[in-house]
Write a structure and sequence with these properties.
Number of helices of chain B: 0
Strand order of the largest sheet of chain B: 1-7-6-5-4-3-2
Radius of gyration of chain A: 32 Å
Distance between the termini of chain A: 49 Å
Structural class of chain B: mainly beta
Number of strands of chain A: 24
Largest sheet of chain A: 7 strands, mixed
Distance between the termini of chain B: 29 Å
Order of helices and strands of chain B: EEEEEEE
Radius of gyration of chain B: 17 Å
Helix content of chain A: 40-55%
Strand order of the largest sheet of chain A: 1-2-3-4-5-6-7
Helix content of chain B: under 10%
Oligomer: heterodimer
Strand content of chain A: 5-15%
Shape of chain A: globular
Largest sheet of chain B: 7 strands, antiparallel
């Protein structure tokens, strides 16, 4: 048979044109003995490849095609663990020495890291092939000798390729002569770039994209033919009929490569150098005991029992070093807080911790004591099982920490500095093609008209590129193009390109810390941001490898709370201690139960607003249920509705089997949290905890059909053994799904943060809104909606003022003064220049004085005028703009003459309210003094109600209304929720799929006039839309925030 | 120097060079040429080179050709290709 030893997957970004699954399944179908993965300068797909080969039953060989100094290609294959480490080091070094986009490895480094590797001389871009093509046989022979010295004669092979490319025959004959001359053996490879011939078209497109050229233009850089696919054994025999031994050598090489990345222990948990010759476990225990005394005063039996239990499990799973590492990270975070003036060095770490824990780790008491969690798990009865089960851990535990943005950025840099980039690297993330990217890039290479592509792109919603045909069918101007040349190629190729990796990027906050070099386990390369380094695996591969990964996440809500408390301190002299507020304040819950949740973390979405008025939370447990309930994994089985119905007594609390009670009693028989899936598997089917966790994870894996079938059989068998009949077991198993649900502890952590935000909104609305304005972008709402909500809370928003505004929004006499940074086109440098000059010399006296002193660009000055920043000098903004035009002098080396302009100032008609409003919307994103719907109301005709009128209407009433669309949400393709806003408030609407599909284009317009039936149900109110038309306004106002 | 004819140039005056010329070929089962009709039938003594081109698939006229550089029994060399779309053979220098 045959082993393919030179094969590129789509992880050879913008070059390989097939997925790992396609390649492996095809190789298996063709009867290959083995398949090597040799992507360009990376091992991004190596872990997935190893696991897939294992599960699909073919031998996988890890390798890479690396680029040497001079741009020469070399194929390397891993024989053993040492070889794998060497390959990781070689790729890391290639990035370190070369450019981030064009890595190149110095030859001397290669020579020092050959153990455990087999080298193949490379494709036509290999140094050997280039020497042969240049007729430099003597040099070629010397090169072979050199590689034989480095790798050993038995580990270096001359690669011959026969892809029907012009020159293949002659080159192969010369290589064969060199083989005879030097003793280096020949090996046949396919230089595979796709799994089947037809895929060559996509490969052509990828190459054109990578060169930013059309297909026409990229003629010289594309492969000349479609022969770079996985060929049949007969085709290979024909192609290499002059070199049968070269084919046989593929099997000889494959037999030497025995490294299995899927099962190799490439990573070990970090060891920690504890102090005072204590062991890691002893040191951790000491820290926890000290913190427990500070936290609790005396250590109660309950605390003692839980702490002992956790420390026992930590010792069993050898996690002490891992947790102490987190403790060090928390200390580093505290240093950052102190440097930023946000905390005191005297404060114990567990008081006001720098980060907030999330996820299942929040159930750890140790976490609460060492400063990585803000939730006392004992207070909320959080079980440890999900995070740290009794039996063996299926993978290293994940601890995610949320930080305010200001702390997180600095913390990442300090973590790199403290541990060094070889020991602390950021997690990679693979950007993939979705519908927008596919249309844009493929449209360009196919040379389709740019304007038409732009029109099409504007109609696309986020999602899979495979939806393109359906979208085009609905658009009249594109429906006729479905079969046109170029466009039909776009459709077909978009389908193939969907989900393809585009590039390796940096995960927002995931970081791996290790006590042994990470670059021995996975290649590390510089990130796009200077000073940062990323490993070449994404979080799935990192999980599979058992890495310890810390997620430093920037949570806008924490930044908002931090800023808000800072503003409160500025105004009142006292900073509220958010860890000590009353978490049972019913006034806060009253506000939440009314659905007054705009700007409140986790509970402000349309779906959350609909739910919270029915769930009516009255304590933190309820908040956790509120936060956890509105998740895809709960909603997919109608869980939310069922839970709400049981909660308000409309339906009884029932269980499909008594064995469900332990897991589901506290959530009224409904699965709301991930942990409950685990618990059901344990209680109903007798799964061990680690096994139960693997079952839960299996649901969200790709290509999991066979895996899920296997788990289902095991579940049913286990349930049967526990006296559960097959039908009931099947019903219970169907409650599991691959959609996302929160862990229970995570929901508690978020529920607490949601409560804190609510408390601030209720008691300190001024500071709350100033902070939320300053922390944009975040949350679900645009500035206009936030402004309207502020108004409804009695907070006035003031236009920017050239003498009163700071860079950011601030409190001014009981109102919020918008900051200079809110003006379009005004960046940090200009804003700082304006405020610093003002501080140094004094307030600006006139428009001319401002222009002279600030040095801002004319466009910025005009935008400031449009935003009303010069209203303090002159209310006629048209006159101000005229003056700017007369006085503005660009800053260059030539001094401007101080010519008078007063004689040219014109008496211009002031802009009307409509023009001022449109100007403010364009430049600020909001209209502080009013709402556009007030100006449009006269155009709406009779019979159009306002949001205020609707408050008086009953369930079932038919009415018409109108508003600006501020939000669209379409969970799982079911009912569309959209919210209209008018000058009095919001109008929540629902649109059923049939109605939505009929008028989909109209529903995407910014201003709608709708009619339908009012639905009032359990406190929630919606207009169920039956008819829609748009109100066409030429000017662009604000943009709605649309969500999947 | 070419004499100036003082006539206006027109597009028809430009003719492409090296256009493929149809040629008859007898081929083996695997598609390798066995003999070619270059005035008379000539046996193929050896295949010096073989390569394939696939291009312009996005146009109506796809270019998909299998080229052969052949050594004939007479000692001459000839370059021809098979149009993989319709199976026709053409002679063309490469």
């Amino acid at each position: 048979m045959y082993a393919e030893l030179h094969c590129h997957s789509y992880y050879s970004f913008l070059d390989g044109a097939s997925s790992l699954e396609e390649l492996i399944l095809k190789a298996k179908e063709l009867g290959y003995t083995a398949l090597a993965l040799t992507d360009h300068n990376n091992l991004c797909g190596a872990m997935s490849f190893a696991r897939l080969c294992k599960s699909l039953g073919i031998k996988g060989i890890i390798g890479a095609e690396i680029t040497l100094e001079g741009g020469y290609h070399l194929t390397l294959l891993v024989k053993d663990g040492q070889g794998y480490s060497n390959l990781c080091r070689l790729i890391t070094e290639a990035y370190r020495q070369g450019d981030r986009r064009q890595p190149e490895l110095p030859r001397e480094y290669l020579a020092e890291h050959t153990e455990g590797l087999i080298a193949l001389s490379g494709c036509t871009k290999g140094e050997l092939a280039e020497l042969v093509n240049s007729h430099k046989s003597d040099e070629a022979a010397r090169l072979i000798k050199e590689y034989q010295e480095w790798f050993g004669v038995e580990n270096y092979f001359i690669e011959i390729q026969s892809n029907l490319v012009y020159g293949d025959v002659g080159r192969n004959r010369t290589l064969s002569q060199l083989s005879a001359q030097t003793g280096a053996k020949l090996v046949a490879t396919g230089n595979v770039h796709y799994h089947q011939r037809e895929r060559h078209q996509l490969q052509d497109c990828l190459v054109a994209i990578s060169h930013c050229q059309t297909l026409e233009e990229s003629h010289r850089v594309r492969r000349p033919n479609s022969e770079f696919y996985l060929r049949t054994i007969d085709e290979l025999n024909e192609a290499f009929k002059e070199y049968p031994q070269a084919l046989a050598n593929t099997l000889n090489i494959a037999a030497k490569c025995d490294f299995d990345l899927a099962t190799a222990s490439v990573y070990s948990l970090p060891e920690y150098q504890a102090v005072n010759s204590k062991s890691q476990d002893e040191y951790l225990e000491e820290i926890c005991n000290q913190a427990a005394l500070r936290r609790y005063g005396t250590i109660s039996p309950k605390v003692e029992f839980r702490l002992r239990e956790e420390l026992r499990l930590v010792k069993k799973h050898r996690l002490a070093g891992f947790l102490l590492l987190y403790h060090d990270v928390a200390k580093l975070g505290r240093e950052v807080m102190v440097d930023l003036g946000l905390s005191s060095a005297d404060l114990p770490l567990e008081e006001n911790p720098p980060g907030r824990g999330r996820g299942s780790s929040v159930s750890l008491l140790i976490g609460y004591l060492i400063g990585i969690s803000h939730i006392d798990p004992l207070e909320f009865g959080l079980s440890l099982e999900r995070f740290m089960p009794e039996d063996s851990l299926s993978c290293a535990p994940d601890i995610d920490l949320d930080f305010p943005r200001s702390i997180r950025e600095e913390l990442i840099l300090r973590t790199h500095e403290k541990w060094g980039w070889r020991y602390a690297a950021l997690t990679g993330t693979i950007g993939t093609y979705q519908i927008h990217g596919a249309v844009r890039d493929l449209g360009k290479v196919l040379d389709l008209p740019a304007e038409e592509l732009a029109q099409l792109s504007a109609q696309l919603e986020w999602g899979s590129a495979r939806k393109l045909e359906k979208v085009m069918e609905k658009l009249p101007q594109f429906k006729e193009k479905l079969d046109s040349p170029g466009w039909c190629d776009l459709l077909r190729l978009s389908w193939e390109l969907d989900g393809f990796p585009k590039y390796l990027g940096q995960h927002p906050g995931g970081m791996i810390i290790s006590s042994t070099p990470i670059s021995d386990v996975v290649p590390v390369q510089p990130a796009a941001t200077p000073g940062r380094y990323i490993c070449q695996w994404d979080k799935d591969s990192i999980d599979d490898a058992g890495f310890v990964k810390i997620d430093f996440l920037a949570l806008g809500a924490l930044s908002q709370i931090q800023e808000c408390t800072g503003l409160i301190y500025e105004r009142t002299g006292t900073m509220p201690d958010m860890s000590r507020i009353d978490f049972n304040d019913q006034k806060v819950y009253d506000m939440l139960c009314r659905g007054d949740t705009i700007g409140i973390f986790q509970v402000e979405s349309a779906a959350q607003m609909q739910t919270i008025v029915r769930l009516k939370p009255r304590n933190l447990f309820d908040m956790a249920h509120e936060v956890g309930a509105v998740r895809p994994g709960v909603g997919v089985n109608g869980g939310v509705q069922e839970y709400l119905a049981r909660r308000c007594g409309k339906k009884p609390v029932v269980f499909d089997h008594p064995l469900e009670k332990h897991a589901l009693e506290r959530t009224l028989g409904i699965v709301l949290f991930q942990d409950q899936v685990n618990q059901l598997a344990i209680d109903v089917a007798g799964f061990k905890p680690a096994e139960a966790d693997q079952l839960r994870r299996a649901f969200s894996r790709r290509h999991n059909q066979a895996l899920l079938e296997d788990y289902r059989s095991r579940f049913l068998a286990g349930a049967l053994a526990r006296g559960v009949d097959e039908e009931t077991a099947g019903v219970i198993f169907r409650k599991f799904n691959g959609q996302y649900m929160f862990p229970e502890s995570h929901a508690f952590a978020f529920g607490v943060t949601a409560y804190r935000t609510s408390w601030l909104k209720l008691y300190y609305p001024l500071e709350f809104f100033a902070a939320i304005f300053n922390q944009q972008p975040m949350g679900f709402y645009n500035l206009e909606t936030l402004k309207e909500d502020a108004k409804s809370h009695g907070i006035k928003i003031l236009n920017p003022d050239i003498n009163k505004s700071d860079r950011l929004c601030r409190i001014e006499n009981g109102a919020v003064r918008l900051g200079l940074l809110m003006v379009s086109g005004l960046g940090e440098a200009a804003a700082s220049a304006i405020t610093e000059t003002r501080t140094e010399i004094g307030n600006y006296k006139s428009v001319g004085d401002f222009l002279e002193r600030s040095g801002v660009l004319e466009e910025v000055a005009l935008n400031l005028a449009s935003a009303g920043a010069f209203d303090c000098f002159e209310l006629n903004r048209r006159k101000v703009k005229w003056e700017i035009g007369l006085r503005y002098r660009p800053a260059n080396c030539q001094l401007s003459l101080p010519l008078p302009v007063e004689q040219d100032l014109a008496a211009l008609v002031p802009p009307g309210n409509w023009d001022k409003m449109i100007d403010e919307y364009s430049n600020l994103g909001l209209y502080p003094t009013g709402h556009i719907m007030a100006s449009l109301r006269h155009k709406l005709g009779k019979g159009i109600c306002t949001s205020k009128d609707m408050d008086k209407m009953k369930d079932g009433d038919y009415l018409g209304t109108a508003g600006l669309v501020i939000r669209r949400q379409r969970p799982r393709g079911k009912v569309v929720f959209l919210t209209l806003e008018d000058e009095f408030g919001h109008i929540p609407c629902m649109v059923f799929p049939g109605i939505y599909q009929q008028s989909e284009l109209t529903f995407k317009k910014p201003f709608l006039i709708v009619s339908g039936y009012l639905s009032r149900k359990d406190g929630a109110c919606n207009l169920v839309i039956q008819k829609v038309k748009s109100l066409d306004i030429k000017e662009k106002v604000t943009v709605s925030r649309d969500w999947k | 120097m070419v004499k100036d004819t003082r006539k206006t140039l027109c597009p028809g005056a430009f003719k492409p060079v090296d256009l493929p010329e149809a040629i008859l070929v007898r081929e083996s089962k695997s598609g390798t040429p066995l003999s070619v009709r270059d005035c008379t039938w000539q046996t193929v003594a050896g295949v010096e080179g073989c390569w394939r081109i696939d291009d312009e698939w996005w146009r109506p006229q796809v270019v998909s050709r299998l080229y052969f550089e052949l050594r004939l029994a007479s000692g001459c060399k000839i370059c021809l290709f098979k149009n993989l779309a319709d199976g026709c053979w053409f002679r063309q220098n490469y």
